[in-house]
Amino acid sequence: MAYRIGLDRLEHIRVLYADWSTVSDEDIQEWRALWWRIYRLDTYANLASGTPYLIDDTLIDTSFNLSQTANPSHAIFLPPNSAGLAELLPAITSDPETLLDNIHNITIASMRQAGLMIRIHMLRWQAGMLSQITAVDRQLTTLRLALPPGWLNPHRNAFINESPLAHHARLITVYHLRMAQLLLSVAECSARRADDWLSAWQRVLETCQDIAGLASQWDSAYCMTVDPAITFTIFTTLIFLDLQRKCELVATDDLHSSIDHDITVLHLQLKHFGTIWTQARLLTCKVPTSFRHVW
């Protein structure tokens, strides 16, 4: 329906279609915001189900959200591949009004690229897979380093008077980046030789711990203000923490205790979302029974 209406090509739609010629700039902005929410939905839905994305990132002619005072000639567009995502950040950070929303868009785009690596693995296209994973991983690293200072810090930045609402909106973008890293690490495990997979498996644990660190800063009062699809990240992390806990490489009591704590924190966060959203409640019911001795 979005394609049929033309939401993917809003920048020229008033020229291409007479029906749109009388639509105001304010209404175009609302349609633009709707398009990027559909883009996010496409990402979450297909990552969760393992199906191909319906939106082709290379064929989008709708700019990111613009503030009311922004010059349309300075519109920001999604690059044809994730290698260009970091280059958008200077323009995005120059507009505080749309900063959180537009960084959300590029972290979603980064997560899409990582999810594509998982799909390639599922289709068993092994030729050149490791080099593709490495390329996407480098792009993710560049994006993380290009973000504003302190962006990845899970704590609220009181020194710049960051509001709790803005803090949680920022946390969601960090969840995206951590999920992208988790997906890449899992794909890398399958792509490496049996004697060379340990470093990738360790990265899986590191990323799960990072995600649990985000959950530890979560205030359940803000579950209604963010996209509940973030619960798929929480659920995925719980699964891999359970696998790590069962792994014979986890040999120390301290590490076992740390993993158990992370599982508890993530499960409680999932339950908070479950008090509001059916999806989260269903995911809570599907967590492995082996977790129950931890709770």
TrEMBL record:
The Xylanolytic transcriptional activator regulatory domain, residue ranges: 19-64
InterPro entries membership: XnlR_reg_dom
Protein keywords: Nucleus, Transcription, Transcription regulation
CDD domains xref list: fungal_TF_MHR (cd12148)
Transmembrane segments: none
A Pfam family: Fungal_trans
GO molecular function: DNA binding; zinc ion binding
GO biological process, one term: DNA-templated transcription
Protein name: Contig An03c0020, genomic contig
